Amino acid sequence: MRILVTGCAGFIGYHLTLKLIENGHNVMGIDNLNDYYDVRLKLDRLKELGIDSDNALHQNKTVASDSFKGFKFVRMSIEDRENLPQLFDHNHFDVVCNLAAQAGVRYSLENPEAYVDSNIVGFLNILECCKNHNIEHLVYASSSSVYGMNKKIPFNTTDSVDHPISLYAASKKSNELMAHTYSHLYGIRTTGLRFFTVYGPWGRPDMAMFLFTEAILNHKPIKVFNHGKLERDFTYIDDIVQGITQIVENKHTAAYNSDNLYHLYNIGNSKSVKLLDFIEAIEDEIGLKASKEMMPMQPGDVEKTWADVSGLERDYNYRPNTPIKSGVKKFVAWYKTYYGNSNE
User: Fold this and answer.
1) Which of 41, 90, 154, 235 is the most buried (most CB within 10 A)?
2) pTM for the full model?
3) C-alpha angle with apex 193: 64 to 124, nearest 5 degrees?
4) What are phi and psi of 5, to 5 degrees?
5) CB burial string 203-214: b at 16+ within 10 A, e below
6) Which Pfam families does the UniProt entry name for this protein (predicted)?
7) Residues annotated as catalytic (active site), given as ranges
8) Most distant CA pair in the chain: distance in Å?
9) How do residues 205-258 score in pLDDT, each as one tens digit?
């Protein structure tokens, strides 16, 4: 298939792009390479995909991969109302995977405009392009953050999500509503995925896995919010990518061929892990104890997440199978290789 992956230099976008290329698809990747976190990490992900850093930085220039004949990259923002439609004009995409977004719950308190620009305006632009170019299937990233203060565990997509507690969560809930509208009005097949705390090699520096590993290796204290009384459905990147590719590639399921064009799924590990146990797994792998600074609850944060993934299991045979210890081991090994850190 001909697939557009937005946010392809991001954590999940990079891994998904690589998997789709390896599976034989022709992939066009776009990313605006913003400086929300170190751009060098994004450029190094693109290097793994065969895109030279100097070429990647040119705005709106199509660059062919040196390593994979099925991959091309363009530096572009999804909110670009002039160039994004032209990209759709010149490429006849079958599927669009929209992973481009301004991420991070806490940053939405500091820079709310970035979330409206990328997550609302940008997503509308994607929907309009899908409508105007008869895209077969739009798969897009939502978030477990939409569940807000929901106390019912595990979280199910039938639960009410009318009380978001961060602008990031509100923007993702908006995406789901916008997708529903376009599915209803224009017959666009849309599948939204509520991601649950994704971690793994090439991860984002603002995520707990990265922050804890960096601090422990460098003998610095880690901040443990809500005094450690947090639980997360930590999901290894390979399990996430497996789920997305099954949705993209499998057109023979009852869900795909049903009259209902709008679908929404949780995608997670379907287990909740205590934050202190997660930290202990990192300590065990590194061989050092963390110095913990116990902190109060952060604004916009929630105490517990846990995904009910039965819908994705039923419709696409989704089976996450990476235990925390195994995932932590792989991340720490990557981190030490990439940054040259060791605890010797």
Assistant:
1) 235
2) 0.94
3) 70
4) -115, 115
5) bbeebbbbebbe
6) Epimerase (PF01370)
7) 168
8) 60
9) 999 999 999 999 999 999 999 998 988 999 999 999 999 999 999 988 888 888
Q: Six-digit token pair at 187?
A: 């017959």
Question: Pairing state of beta strands 137-143 and 71-75?
Answer: unpaired
Classify the C-alpha dihedral 39-97-250-324 as positive or negative.
Answer: positive
| The pLDDT of residue 252 | 87
| Domains and their CATH numbers in the chain | 2-200+234-270+306-320 (3.40.50.720)
Q: How many CB atoms lie within 10 A of CB 303?
A: 14
- Report the 3 state secondary structure along the chain: CEEEEECCCCHHHHHHHHHHHHCCCEEEEEECCCCCCCHHHHHHHHHHCCCCHHHHCCECCCEECCCCCCEEEEECCCCCCCHHHHHHHHCCCCEEEECCCCCCCCHHHHCHHHHHHHHHHHHHHHHHHHHHCCCCEEEEEEEHHHHCCCCCCCECCCCCCCCCCCHHHHHHHHHHHHHHHHHHHHCCCEEEEEECCEECCCCCCCCHHHHHHHHHHCCCCEEEHHHHCCEECCEEHHHHHHHHHHHHHCCCCCCCCCCCCEEEEEECCCCCEEHHHHHHHHHHHHCCCCCEEECCCCCCCCCECCECCHHHHHHHCCCCCCCHHHHHHHHHHHHHHHHCCCCC
Instruction: Using only the alpha carbons of the chain, give its radius of gyration.
Output: 19
Q: 309 CB contacts (<8 Å, ≥6 apart)?
A: 265, 266, 267, 268, 270, 318, 320
The 10s digit of each residue's pLDDT in 243-297 is 999 999 998 888 888 899 999 999 999 888 999 999 999 999 999 999 999 999 8
**pLDDT tens digit sequence for 28-69:** 999 999 999 999 999 999 999 999 999 999 999 999 999 999
Summary mean pLDDT of the chain: 94
Q: Which two tokens stand for residue 197?
A: 């705390």
